[in-house]
């Protein structure tokens, strides 16, 4: 169906979550985007994903439900650990709210979208931009310099967040929890102070990546090779399969090293992108990016 002329779009950035040790706490917005809008009426084909978002909106706002169609244009690949579902949930809720109330209520959007998403990291980072730490009464945010690059290796493989979460243990050893707390604290301090090099060596994780590595053959070797090529650290992006390395230099060498490691592990196609942080977060635009 041809997209109708729409009065506005909601631009939502892709995100990476966890950054290694910050499971369900860390999120970071990236300069890769989906533009989301809505129009009245029902979709030509059943779309339970967007229908759930519409129902959640009208229930949360205590309004009589109305059918709306979802429209998405953008470059955030689905099921790759880059927050695609978060862009759509957040973007559609924001589009509906702006259509009906002519303003955006970010705390309400974050809360409502998080209820749908099941975890706050991608949603919060996409809404606010920058690097966010979720927890307490409100999230904390730090803007990130464009000097800091995120070398992103995207295998041609889809993973399910539900499947990835099903692999996690119910309990973890005390020493593993302590190690993650130490590393997460070090990353937070480095990013909030803008002293990025001090995060080097703090990206190892013991809570989720070891259990999810079976979903992404070559994960550990790609991380190792990225660090050998000069990255401060590398990690599984969200539930994967995307692997991301953080660096101030040698982006091309890091990308090649990650790509070679994943090819050796059997991945035929691995796209490499060098991304920066998006510090603006969700915003209204008058026209969508060209597909």
TrEMBL record:
Pathway: Amino-acid biosynthesis; L-threonine biosynthesis; L-threonine from L-aspartate: step 4/5
Gene Ontology molecular function terms on file: ATP binding; homoserine kinase activity
Protein name: Homoserine kinase
Domain (GHMP kinase N-terminal) ranges: 59-130
Binding residue positions for ATP: 77-87
Name of the gene this protein is made from: thrB
Organism per entry: Verrucomicrobia subdivision 6 bacterium BACL9 MAG-120507-bin52
Family that this chain belongs to: Belongs to the GHMP kinase family. Homoserine kinase subfamily.
Catalysis performed (reactions): L-homoserine + ATP = O-phospho-L-homoserine + ADP + H(+)
Domain GHMP kinase C-terminal: 199-262
Lineage, opening ranks: Bacteria, Pseudomonadati, Verrucomicrobiota, Verrucomicrobiia, Verrucomicrobiales
